[in-house]
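Many introductory courses stop at the sequence. We go one step further.
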Amino acid sequence: MSPFSAILKGEDRVSTTVCLAYMFACVNLFFVAQCSDARIHSNNERGGVSDVLTPNTTFSVGPRTIEKFSALSSSIWIAVDVERVVWRTENRGITWVPIKEGKYRVSNLSIVDAQTLYLVIDGLFLRSADLGLSWEEVSQVPGDVVAISFLNAAEGVLIADVGESHEDVTLSIFTADGGRNWRRQSIRANNKSTSIDSIFYAQRDLVFAAGREGVFVTYDTGGTWAKVPKLSGSFDKIEFRTPSIGWLVETIFSASQITIDSGRSWTRLDLPQSQSGSTFFIFENRTTVVLDSRGYVQMKRFGSRSFVTVGSYSKDWASMVNKDEIGQAFIEPTPDGAVVLLWFLDGKSFSIATKDCGETWF
């Protein structure tokens, strides 16, 4: 095993100084050698991102600027674009079909299992039992729904803003029967309404919400909410990979907070220097993978000292007039155990997936 692989696996087979020097030399040589190749290559000797990333296709009909993305399998995806059109593909983005369209707001997709999906469009709570091919209107929900999370097919929660301007009230709206009936409860901290951007139903009687005022938790399905101490700042997203392993994404993408004990304690994780549009994911073995808007894939094994670049999609980014155009990157798990990494760029989609915590990619 090379010193480079030793670092990636968090082992100390050679001295720290030699390992780090070797790592940086390998990374520098790799990018010099690969700067003209528009594929992902691996400089990890085992199971890296290796010759698997090429443009799926250039599509004339499909999402351009994506707001939300969900992977139902390694090949079936659903995306919501800025025009509030919901798109579906069965071939990893080669062709897309519009399936729904909203006038005002489309929520994120909540994937319950390999078949059952939930979605809110313009106040209508929708259910699909066939991977998004058809949708049933289950009920109406109040307010402007900004986030949705389901623990199972019956128990779920929505976050909705109700009111106008400074009188807005953020509601947590819980259901125990698959959305047929809802129970409303405002989210308040110190007797003040809070702004929430993301919610996650982690376990029964354990729900987290995150937003500009920090992180909040309820242990009684919204009856009472409390602010999580020592988690100050603004957060865009909260997610759990397992009932115990979860993470928060800071609004300014420079660090994250990670828990491995169901939120009882949190540890700050400094992320590699990235551009806007970056995203990251934590596998169940605690390996962290970062996908940034430049197309670099970086990984950090649990216990290792730093992130290591394991692949890149090389392109002359300097030639882009508006670099925000490359800032669409997504990492999403699927019900069948895969994790999909996806880029959108100039009407093309680029994707890779793994089913073994990043050891091998396809």
